[in-house]
Amino acid sequence: MTTDTMHEPEKLLTPSEVAAIFRVDPKTVTRWAKVGKLSSIRTLGGHRRFREVEVQELLAKAQEQAVS
To answer: Which residues pair with 48 in a beta bridge?
Structure first.
């Protein structure tokens, strides 16, 4: 396989990891997912996982709003 065909798996975060990044309760992260502020993926066991890239984008947006 060449490096063009190999892709690194997408990094997924748990609600607790996202909550730690934003310094909020994990239930707040779940609420964000329910209202569409942050999309989530469900595992086979039904647990939510969040794309790290999307979380970082939301964090950057939140920091940008805090500065202005």
So the answer is: 42
